[in-house]
Amino acid sequence: MSNLFPITTIRGSKPGPDGLIIAGVHGDEYEPIRAVVQLLKELRNTLLCGSLTLVPIVNISAYLTASRLGEDGLDLARTCPGNKSGSITEKVAHEISNLIRKTDFLIDMHTGGNLFDISPLSGYMLHPNLEVLETQRAMAEAFNLPIIWGTSPELNGRTLSVARDENVPAIYTEYRGGGFYPEGITDLADGCKNVLAYFGMLPLEKGVSKVALIIEDNHPGSGHLQEMYPAPEEGIFVPEVKLGQEVKREEILGHIWDFTGKKKTDIFAQQEGTVFLIRAVPMAKKGDALAGILSSVNKD
């Protein structure tokens, strides 16, 4: 039991994998928290084998202020593996990192929080170990969200980078943001159960695949949402596109207006692809992310 966040472990009747499912790494991401609570209710006495550790809220400090950041101003998703003797976020990072090191697979669920609206997706790092990578690909496909996104293994400070260093197969999910979407609770809980079935921990129920887009991008920095389409200057961002919209290079994504309403700066698409991220908070400072596009690679 942690002194920093709630932990529950459910055990099956037979030996098997030890899984870890977490939510609330950021305090303003609510559907994953509710999904883990739902799993706690549904999965008791149901695991066929192994054990499953569930953490509904990793970052209580951020949750209590409805913020991405902890009370020390740190982002937990940039602080791992943390410091046992550090600030509150560093301590939480240290403790969740220790849990990750002891597990056989990790699911870390997110949303765009207050800042972004993100198309539902499951993602993973393009791990150099082919066995780990193939397991992550299978986990992401089993989770069964419309987009699968493999990204650079070089990003650090995250739960997935801790898993990467320990050769623990790990995926994360994003599900909307900039509001509350109750359907996300069911979709995320079902996705977790699909992954557990893949590992033989629940009965396998073959359903219809929702996966429509698979992207693997190994370029340095891919996967860093907060750096996509940075605002060229401070102002109010008014988007002209919607999630899931196909855009062409040089198509207008939106506009930045200064507070007087006299100056408008157009934001153009720099590549062809699918809009999967839109800033949900209109006010943007220079450098803040405004939108995200995934170059289209359709699943057969």
UniProtKB/TrEMBL annotation:
PANTHER family: BLL3975 PROTEIN
Organism domain of life: Bacteria
The protein's required cofactors: Zn(2+)
Record-given protein name: Succinylglutamate desuccinylase/aspartoacylase family protein
Domain Succinylglutamate desuccinylase/Aspartoacylase catalytic: 15-198
A family per Pfam: AstE_AspA_cat
Alphabetic keyword roster: Hydrolase, Metal-binding, Zinc
Cross-referenced InterPro entries: AstE_AspA_cat, N-alpha-Ac-DABA-like, N-alpha-Ac-DABA_deacetylase
Keyword Disulfide bond in annotation: no
